[in-house]
Write a structure and sequence with these properties.
Its EC number is 3.4.13.22. Belongs to the peptidase M15D family. Catalyzes hydrolysis of the D-alanyl-D-alanine dipeptide. It is an enzyme of class 3 (hydrolase). The protein is of the alpha+beta class and 202 residues long. The protein has one domain: Muramoyl-pentapeptide Carboxypeptidase, domain 2 (2-Layer Sandwich), CATH 3.30.1380.10. Helices cover 25% and strands 17% of the residues. It is built from 5 helices and 7 strands; from the N terminus they run βββαβαααβαββ. The strands form 2 sheets. Strands 2-4-5-7-6 form a 5-stranded mixed beta sheet, covered by helices on one side. A two-stranded antiparallel sheet has the order 1-3. β6 and β7 form a beta hairpin. The longest helix is centred in the first third of the chain and has 16 residues. It is globular and about 45 Å long. The protein starts with a strand and ends in a 15-residue tail after the last strand.
């Protein structure tokens, strides 16, 4: 692992995670190149900012569940190769039912260069500390559709409020939201703004 990076659970005691790209439960339908273990890596700067987010969330009765952090360039290349392949309909219904596979790039859901590869982005949600249940957000992680936009129409008032709550927690902790994905946040003060890393999550 590069200097300045760490497994986030080593600093964020009590954080939950499910590294989706290390599993079969992601839009490619199989574990993604570069993800060798089901853990989340980030920069130390991200870890400190997430610790602030943990404190804010806990005061409201919530914990953080992380889905992705640092992403090797190898994984980004794997996404791009996958997007260029013919449709096989294995994951379309669950992750991108209303657009074509190739549109995942043109519509901004899959990036050819990702802030995740700089170690400065995090994909996450909230869960209830008292029950462990995930907070309802109106769409699932990596659901690539307008329903996942911050300004989405057609989700309930409670789900919209939950998204605003997560956004307030993250923005007050030094992160910037991404308008197409309610779960994606980037650290504003990035330690490596021009470097795209490629070491494996291992």
């Amino acid at each position: 692992m590069e200097n300045g990076f760490l497994f986030l659970d080593e600093m964020l005691h009590g954080v939950r995670w499910d590294a989706k790209y290390a599993t079969w439960d992601n839009f490619t339908g199989k574990p993604v190149d570069g993800y060798e273990v089901n853990r989340i890596i980030g920069t130390k700067a991200v870890a400190f900012a997430l610790r602030e987010a943990q404190i804010h969330a806990a005061a409201l009765g919530y914990g953080l569940l992380l889905w992705d952090g640092y992403r090797p360039r190898t994984a980004v290349d794997c996404f791009l190769r996958w997007a260029a392949q013919p449709e096989d309909n294995l994951t379309k219904e669950k992750f991108y039912p209303n657009i074509e596979r190739a549109e995942l790039i043109t519509k901004g859901y899959v990036a050819s260069q990702s802030s995740h590869s700089r170690g400065s982005a995090i994909d996450l949600t909230l869960y209830h500390l008292d029950t462990g249940e995930l907070v309802s957000m109106g769409s699932n992680f990596d659901f690539m559709d307008e329903r996942s936009h911050h300004t989405a129409k057609g989700i309930g008032d409670a789900e919209a409020q939950n998204r605003r709550c997560l956004r307030k927690i993250m923005e007050s902790s030094g992160f910037q939201s991404y308008r197409f994905e309610w779960w994606h946040y980037k650290l504003i003060d990035e330690p490596y703004p021009d470097t795209y890393f490629n070491f494996a999550v291992s």
